[in-house]
């Protein structure tokens, strides 16, 4: 008990009572928080400092270091998260096999190529076809096993849910839309399917590329490619999309034909039969592009009465899941959001 009992609380390995900074007073003299105990274990060498990285390019403006270093500090862990910029997956092989490697985030253009360097890939990441998280684990004989996960889809799900898009669990399904046909679009399709949306429409410049993307998923995803306004006009009111994820570059003009199709889809639910009542939910667009703050796609959606969510909100969610994979600690979403968004939170 008391000050003299703190060391035994730090070194005890079973059923240690802990306090919380959120409590007005500690429950007993000398009681420590879980973070305090980890800091103590770090000081006496019981927790080895590890190196964590973001791999990819360009990454100099990423908010991931701000997020994860804040979470390490809050959790009382001695680890550091930094940047390793490269476009070649082989460049990171020695780093991820080093004894002090704690985990990694992976962004473009390495999300596919990095899979060849790993021992295992999570089923969700296999379906999506991309890895954004590397987790090292130790076997009983001291061998390091590297597993790849994809938390992008989980970040999208969390961002949409916080915006009021709850998904579908009942018989009546609501439609959703993915804008773009690249790697991020695959994670978006997976997220919307897991949330129960059906059908899922694909809209983009290259119709044949979109069809190839649609065909690569199981038929249960119910993916449809929409290429023009005529197809949109034939959709019944119950098949108008109520949620969308944008995966196209935010700093480039939208293709004119694609823009026309998108305007039709955003406006599709605005006919008299679909005027929202007092209890109806707003339609939601999650924009995965971080910059500019308001993209052309967001402006199109807002002009049609849609609620828009910036991509940094998804970064928060995927980062929370990454941190849990690495540390088995579930951080608070509000704290994580402030670390990413800063004054905008």
TrEMBL record:
GO terms for biological process: chorismate biosynthetic process; shikimate metabolic process. It comes from the Eukaryota. One of its GO terms (cellular component) is cytoplasm. GO terms for molecular function: 3-dehydroquinate dehydratase activity; shikimate 3-dehydrogenase (NADP+) activity. Residues 54-134 form the Shikimate dehydrogenase substrate binding N-terminal domain. This is AROM pentafunctional protein, ARO1. It comes from Aureobasidium melanogenum (Aureobasidium pullulans var. melanogenum).
